[in-house]
Amino acid sequence: QVQLVESGGGLAQPGGSLRLSCAASGFTLSSYAMSWVRQAPGKGLEWVSGIYSDGSETYYADSVKGRFTISRHNANNTLYLQMDSLIPEDTAVYYCKSSGDVWGQGAQVTVSS
Questions:
Q1: Integer distance in angstroms from the first to the last C-alpha of the chain?
Q2: Which whole number is the average pLDDT over 29-33?
Q3: What is the mean pLDDT of residues 47-74?
Q4: Distant-in-sequence contacts of 31-34, Cβ < 8 A, 24+ apart
Q5: Strand 92-98, strand 34-39: pairing
Q6: What is the pLDDT of residues 64-89, one digit of tens each?
Q7: Which of 27, 63, 50 is nearest to 97 (CA)?
């Protein structure tokens, strides 16, 4: 079964950090570019970050540049998103997706004091 499963979401205080993981099964992660996409309450989908299949290039939305870091460990079939200096506006459901249009189920991230 082809699937992506996110983990690592939760509650963080402003200025805090969280690390999301996205584990792939049923397909080889290294064959695909990957992205993180988020959806804040009452808003549409927002692309957050992307990474080439071999990890050689990374891209970020202006809203997270300098605070978030995308990475991947192809040998473990896992994608990551390190989120630092979190702000309340980062509150959203975070989805990982492959360039083959496989989506994870989403991980809730809430930033609040």
A1: 39
A2: 94
A3: 97
A4: 32/98, 32/99, 32/100, 33/98, 33/99, 34/70, 34/72, 34/79, 34/96, 34/97, 34/98, 34/99
A5: antiparallel
A6: 999 999 999 999 999 999 999 999 99
A7: 50
Please name the amino acid found at residue 37.
Answer: V
Q: Which of 87, 71, 75 is nearest to 29 (CA)?
A: 75
DSSP 104: B
Q: Which helix (H) or strand (E) holds 103?
A: none
CA separation (Å) from 24 to 3, 7, 65, 111? 6, 12, 25, 26
* pLDDT at residue number 102: 96
**Which structure tokens are listed for 62?**
């202006």
Token pair 């570019």 in the structure block, residue = 33
